[in-house]
Amino acid sequence: MTALRDPVRLIPLLFxxxxxxxxxxxxxxxxxxxxxxxxxxxALFTSTSAVAVTGLITVDTPTYWSMxxxxxxxxxxxxxxxxxxxxxxxxxxxxxxxxxxxEKMATQVERDRLALGDAGSVLKMILLITVVxxxxxxxxxxxxFATQHGMEWGTAAWQGLFHSVSAFNNAGFSxxxxxxxxxxxxxxxxxxxxxxxxxxxxxxxxMQDLRHNRLRWRRWTLHSKITVSATLVLLAAGFLLIxxxxxxxxxxxxxxxxxxxxxxxxxxxxMPRTAGFNSLDVGSFYDETLMxxxxxxxxxxxxxxxxxxxKVTTFVxxxxxxxxEIRRQKDxxxxxxxxxxxxxxxxxxxxxxxxxLIIGTTMYLLAIxxxxxxxxxxxxxxAFSTVGLSTGITADLPPAGQIAIIMxxxxxxxxxxxxxTALALGAQRRPWRYPEENPIVG
Length: 442
What we know:
Its main location: membrane. By secondary structure, the chain is an all-alpha fold. 64% of the residues lie in helices and 1% in strands. A hairpin with a 2-residue loop joins strand 1 (333-334) and strand 2.
């Protein structure tokens, strides 16, 4: 009962509950296209990937899963994208009580500034944005698929709905075996998908800020200013790097015209930071392009949204700390505001914990497989950052390797800080401090 009263512990429990329910549903014979029972590890991997809105798959979604299975997957990533913190807030409202100050402080890292208004208004805003954006994107895609790509209206409607929900929730699942590679020359398909991904990758606190303050920059919170400005920089940098690196690659951008090259470079600048759609063959990327993807996936998107990674605010705070140390300034600051030491410690903790998990899992997978290191590292970062892009090795991982990826997706979605906070909740603050002594650094 203690866990049910504590939102920090409730978040992982809710995730585990949804993953378990999804696994059982996908384990049913009705969930597969041929009517046979899927292996348990396949059902578990797919359910975890869906709830964690990752998009990594060990089997081909449109051919392996039946319509029941595909609908189940879509519902799972809709739940995951809606946010377990939102579900925890709703749980608190249904129980007829508010969260204590200690609980609010403990969950502040994942909630960030979702408490700008009361919980009820936040829920209404999230539901409204979800329904409106998914409906608009689904309608655009449905019409495009039916009128320009020769699909029957029923098929077009299912494709439009599935890809719209997947894009909005940054899930990266597709009911096409080649994801969106068949539409690499169609901006009317790739464009709405990109916009939906970017919007939710900003995070709900930024959406709420934009809702109240529009484009009045001076009235934005520091969180919104950092998230929006860093997002624009990363999108532009990713676009220019991928465009330059893959310009002459005969297996990706090489054969395309200038317009198509720009469109697909922009698409692949957006996707590594949060969603796993691809319009190009990721396995054919040059090594330098994979390195660009490593960085974009690791940084991720905005806090308190559907994006993964360590989050752009974490990355920017770390850069500001480094800059202030180089300039020998006492405080790290941006946009006329300094950061508290607590935020600096949180950012450092997130980055170090993420790096440790990625390095450890990569070493483990290299030890149990003979796969190339660049592909394994790509897979691991993609799993931790809940991106879902892959060079094509997911299905080649042994069961032990798939279990490692499952655990990484779970931890990546729940959040390293949330896990650490949940583990530390029972600890008591020490009433004393050790004497200070500084070691040599550097």
